[in-house]
Every structure is written in C-alpha cells, then in structure tokens.
C-alpha cells in the first residue's frame, strides 16, 4: 500500500514539474495552458507500472529516472541531480574537488566525448585522449546522465580512482583514472621567450579576482602582448565571465541575459580595466564551454581581442539551481547570453578570427598563429 501511494505521489510531483516547465520557465518559451492531458497520461503510466510490469520496481528509482529524463533532455547544460549528486555539486562550489583531468561534453542519450585532457593529469597518465567516448563511470552507464552529472561523477574529495569505460575504435576498455587537486588557483601565469605572457584560465569562477589581485603587478609590469588562454575553461558562471572581460575592457554595454518571454537583463563592465592597452589574444578550443564563450565573444566583438583557435560549442548561458524537498535539485538554464550586437551565442558559438587546423591543437601551433597576427584587432 505504501509503495502504491509513493508511486502516485511521485507521479503527481512529476506532473507539477511538467506544468512548471510548460508555463514558460525556460528562455524563449511562452505561456501555455495547464497540461491536463499529461496528468491523465502519467496516472495511467504509474498504474500500469504498479499493476502490470513483470517485476515489482523500486518506486523511488523509477521516478528518479523519470525526473532525469524530463530535465536532462531540455538542453546540454540543464540536469536533474539526485540527493547524492547535489551534495557533490555543493561540495564542488565550496571548494574545488579533486579531478581526473577529463573535460567532457555530452547531450542527453548520447555518450560523453572527451573534449580535452589537462596536461600532467591522472587522465593523461592513464592514456585518455581527446575524442575518446566514455560509456560508463564505476559501472554506471553515462548514456542518460546530464553533462553536469557526468562532470560531477568524475570528481571527489578523496583519491579513489574512477573506473572509466572507454570506447576506442569499436573496442571497449575499462581504465582506472585517479583524482588529484589539479590546480590551486583559477589562473596560471607563464611567459614565452620573446613574449607573449599567457594567462591560462582553468575555471572562469574567481579568475577576475586573481588577475586583479595576486597577478595584477605581473600584468602591469609586462610590456608585451597578452594571451587569455580559455582552451580548458569549461566551467564557471556568466557573471564571472563578464567580470573576466572587464579586466581588459570597460563598457556600459556588455550584452544582456535573455530570459523567458524575451525579457532582457542588461550587463556591463563598469570597473576600470587592469590591462586595456596591451595587445590581447584569446585562445579558444573544444573545451571552451559556457561562460568562457561569453568572455571570448564579448572581447572579440568589442575589438579588444582577436580569437585564435577553433569554433566553440555555443553554450553561453546562465544556469540556476532549484532545490527540491527530497534533497534533490534541478539545474536549469534560466537565460541565454546575447552580445551587444544582439547576436546570441547559444547554438552559434564563437568563430575565431584565425582558425587552426583541427588536427593540430598544440600550444606551438597557437603560438605560431598568435605571433603572426597584427598588433591590434
């Protein structure tokens, strides 16, 4: 009796969620009538599972799968996080968890693909390569995971390796990949002989504060061109991306956040730039995802920087976490980033001014192309 009641209550909760999404929460959607038909349909589905399925199923697990399918299918960055995954999400926000060094991209019902591997990371040592397809983590299929869930599954507070199932040329291989604290700051400074200075951003969150803080004197004292290396910047918020662009650019019109019903929230870079005169180049690649795309696109459109590298995926947006009463949560796309010109980067991406051959993504290739560019955009 308790099991039946749980299924029906869970179905009702799912229908509330359907109605919530159907009333135009997501950007670009419109108001709609309450999904009366969906209530009847879901009630029928719940009853069929309860009465006619060959085995008795765990109702919590059944509804967990329903929530995951509903939310994860919205777009690449939205996702349902169960109680355990939400705890990992919160731990990662409080402080960087240990990582494998794998940077992923995936869509719902497609296995994730490796976009990049951090140099010197456990993943590189284990033989993981860009372009590899990953079908399972610790024997759990990645097929129905969201991108957020897949990222979190690779992270952890301890050193326990993750068992990664890799598909290479139609062969499957299980590889144990360790976790390490890969970086202790959002940005790493390095200098090439004869220039430029390279600011390698590992995460957009906190990058502006580090540039204006510990790295400020180095940036001010450097007399050559600067490179903002966003090739590995796959995570971070839109607000932090605008702050990052503001380190190099001051403008009252930094684009906008397009929310539901077409409403827009204006964005600006109001602070005095730290480096607004030094020649600037942005490096982009397949792992330049989300917030980093917004920073690159804004600096490019404002003619503050040229972009060198490869076209990005087109995921510049804002995500908001909604916490549910049972301890799980929904990570939902709540706005799309729009450049000052009105061009939306969602599904479009940043097109480089100087494109590299997809087969040669080495730092040497980026440097060669960068040094061949004119001094100013």
Task: Describe the protein in words.
With 377 residues, the chain is an alpha+beta fold. The chain folds into three domains: 2-76, no CATH class; 98-177, PDZ domain (Pdz3 Domain); 187-313 and 349-371, Alpha-Beta Complex (2-enoyl-CoA Hydratase, Chain A, domain 1). 31% of the residues lie in helices and 21% in strands. A hairpin with a 7-residue loop joins strand 2 (102-105) and strand 3. Helix 1 runs antiparallel to helix 2 (36-52), helix 1 (2-22) runs parallel beside helix 3 (59-72) and helix 9 (238-246) packs parallel to helix 10. The radius of gyration is 22 Å and the shape is globular.
Strand content: 15-25%
User: What distance lies between the first and last C-alpha atoms, to the nearest angstrom?
Assistant: 70 Å
- Note the main sheet: 6 strands, mixed
Order of helices and strands: HHHEHEEHEEHEEEEHHEHEEEHEEEEH
Give the number of DSSP strands: 17
CATH 2nd-level architecture of the largest domain? Alpha-Beta Complex
Helical amount: 25-40%
What is the structural class? alpha+beta
Q: Order of strands across the biggest sheet?
A: 8-9-10-13-14-17
Query: Can you identify the CATH class of the largest domain?
Result: Alpha Beta
Please work out how many helical segments DSSP would assign: 11
Overall number of domains: 3
Please state the CA-atom Rg, rounded to the nearest Å.
22 Å
Q: Any low-confidence stretches, pLDDT <50, length ≥5?
A: 1-13, 18-25, 29-33
């Amino acid at each position: 009796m308790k099991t039946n009641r749980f299924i029906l209550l869970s179905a009702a909760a799912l229908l509330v969620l359907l109605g919530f999404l159907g009333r135009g929460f997501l950007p670009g959607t419109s108001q709609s009538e309450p999904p009366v038909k969906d209530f009847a349909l879901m009630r029928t589905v719940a009853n069929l599972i309860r009465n006619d399925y060959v085995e008795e199923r765990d109702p919590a697990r059944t509804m967990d799968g329903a929530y995951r399918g509903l939310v994860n299918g919205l777009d690449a960055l939205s996702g349902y996080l169960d109680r355990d995954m939400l705890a990992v999400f919160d731990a990662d926000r409080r402080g960087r968890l240990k990582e494998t060094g794998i940077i992923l991209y995936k869509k719902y019902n497609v296995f994730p693909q490796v976009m990049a591997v951090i140099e010197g990371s456990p993943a590189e040592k284990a033989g993981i390569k860009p372009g590899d397809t990953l079908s399972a983590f610790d024997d759990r299929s990645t097929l129905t995971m969201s991108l957020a869930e897949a990222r979190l599954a690779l992270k952890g507070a301890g050193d326990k390796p993750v068992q990664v199932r890799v598909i290479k040329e139609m062969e499957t291989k299980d590889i144990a990949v360790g976790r390490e604290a890969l970086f202790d700051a959002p940005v790493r400074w390095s200098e090439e002989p004869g220039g430029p200075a390279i600011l390698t951003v590992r995460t957009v969150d906190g990058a502006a504060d580090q540039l204006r803080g510990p790295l400020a004197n180095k940036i001010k004292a450097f007399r050559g061109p600067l490179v903002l290396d966003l090739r590995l910047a796959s995570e971070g918020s839109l607000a932090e991306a605008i702050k990052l662009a503001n380190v190099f650019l001051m403008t009252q019109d930094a684009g906008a956040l397009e929310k539901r019903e077409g409403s827009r929230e204006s964005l600006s870079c109001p602070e005095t730039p730290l480096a607004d005169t030094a020649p600037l180049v942005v490096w982009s690649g397949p792992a330049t995802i989300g917030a980093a795309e917004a920073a690159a696109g804004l600096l490019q459109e404002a003619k503050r920087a040229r972009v060198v590298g490869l076209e990005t995926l087109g995921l510049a947006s804002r995500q908001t976490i909604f916490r549910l009463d049972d301890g799980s949560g929904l990570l939902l796309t709540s706005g799309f980033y729009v450049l000052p010109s009105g061009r939306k980067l969602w599904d479009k991406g940043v097109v480089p001014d100087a494109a590299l051959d997809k087969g040669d993504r080495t730092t040497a290739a980026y440097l060669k192309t960068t040094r061949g560019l004119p001094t100013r955009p």
